[in-house]
TrEMBL record:
Domain of life: Bacteria
Topology in the lipid bilayer: Multi-pass membrane protein
Residue ranges occupied by any ABC transmembrane type-1 domain in the UniProt entry: 95-296
Organism of origin: Phreatobacter cathodiphilus
Alphabetized UniProt keyword annotations: Cell membrane, Membrane, Transmembrane, Transmembrane helix, Transport
Name of the featured protein: ABC transporter permease
Family per similarity comment: Belongs to the binding-protein-dependent transport system permease family.
Compartments it resides in: Cell membrane
A Pfam family it matches: BPD_transp_1_N
Membrane-traversing stretches: 99-122, 134-161, 173-191, 232-252, 272-299
GO cellular component: plasma membrane
Main location: membrane
Length: 312
């Protein structure tokens, strides 16, 4: 039964990745001619034709599509049209810089969001609850680029405490990490509060309290474990969007990560680099969702059984 549950989720993961890659492939080739963008529209027609032939963009779209998937099956993700280097090599060089922002930001989201949500739920209706919810609403409604610019204006320009961009030292990472972390912490706080309030209203929680079980034990032993599923969903989404979520912030703070590389590659129509990054983002998102599905089955066997029945 567990094997069938896993096989169904794995099949969905492969289909999702294929659809994402197909969508990106078609949109990129319909959005502009890379030969004209890289060489310039004033280039000689012979040079443009030679460029198109060398990179295979003169072939019919369906032929390019099957050639691309055949190359992926062989582990070849293409080469950059700008410098001829392997796309995966260019992307791999930027991954450590992106993770240096996104992993601490993820820890910041979890470290602030979950305790804040639990705190607000246990004090429902109080001034503290309203304050936490007010801050959370402000945190996830403000766009990340606006928040980043405000932080730069305050802490870099006005106070001069932190640098406004670059990657020269650990101090350069503080503002982008905070920018990435605040919005996610706000979302996580709201979901954690909602999940906790729903669980605290369940009959088994009231029964445990009526039997004289200490409130701290009721919260830790009964409420928290049963409120984990919605929280795991949000955390899984955050893990899956570690790379994609850094695009705007890396651009604002001139951070040399994968997100900034994606912006440059899209503007240059560097097809192989863009496709490689999108494939990485899709794979990361799908794998994280697959892990979340498996955690669902572990945390709640009823979900695993229903998933196995739907596969039969």
């Amino acid at each position: 039964m567990m094997l069938r549950f896993f096989a169904l989720r794995l099949l969905r993961a492969f289909v999702t990745i294929a659809l994402v890659v197909t969508f990106a492939f078609v949109v990129l080739r319909l959005s502009g001619d890379p030969a004209l963008i890289i060489l310039g529209p004033e280039s000689a027609p012979e040079a443009i034709a030679a460029f198109r032939k060398a990179w295979g963009v003169d072939e019919p779209l369906w032929q390019q599509y099957f050639s691309y998937f055949a190359a992926i099956a062989q582990g070849e993700l293409g080469r950059s049209m700008r410098d001829g280097r392997a796309a995966i090599e260019l992307v791999a060089e930027r991954i450590p810089a992106t993770l240096a922002l996104t992993l601490p930001a993820l820890a910041l989201k979890i470290g602030i969001g979950i305790p804040a949500g639990i705190f607000a739920a246990l004090r429902r209706g109080s001034l503290a609850d309203r304050l936490v919810m007010l801050l959370s609403v402000a945190g996830f409604t403000v766009p990340s680029f606006v928040l980043g610019l405000v932080l730069v204006l305050v802490f870099a320009v006005q106070l001069g405490w932190l640098p406004s961009g670059g990657q020269d030292s650990w101090r350069h990472a503080i503002l982008p990490i905070v920018t990435l972390g605040i919005g996610g912490a706000a979302v996580l706080a709201r979901f954690t509060r909602s999940a906790m309030l729903e669980v605290l209203g369940q009959p088994y929680v009231r029964t445990a309290s009526a039997k004289g079980v200490p409130w701290r034990r009721v919260v830790i032993g009964h409420a928290l474990p049963n409120a984990t599923i919605p929280t795991v969903t949000i955390i899984g989404f955050m893990v899956g969007s570690l790379i994609a979520g850094a695009v705007v912030v890396e651009s604002v703070f001139s951070w040399p990560g994968v997100g900034r590389l994606l912006v440059v590659a899209v503007s240059n129509r560097d097809l192989a680099v863009v496709q490689c990054i999108l494939l990485l983002v899709a794979a990361t998102m799908v794998v994280s969702n697959l892990v979340v599905d498996l955690l669902y089955g572990f945390l709640d066997p009823r979900l695993r059984q229903s998933g196995a029945r739907s596969a039969s």
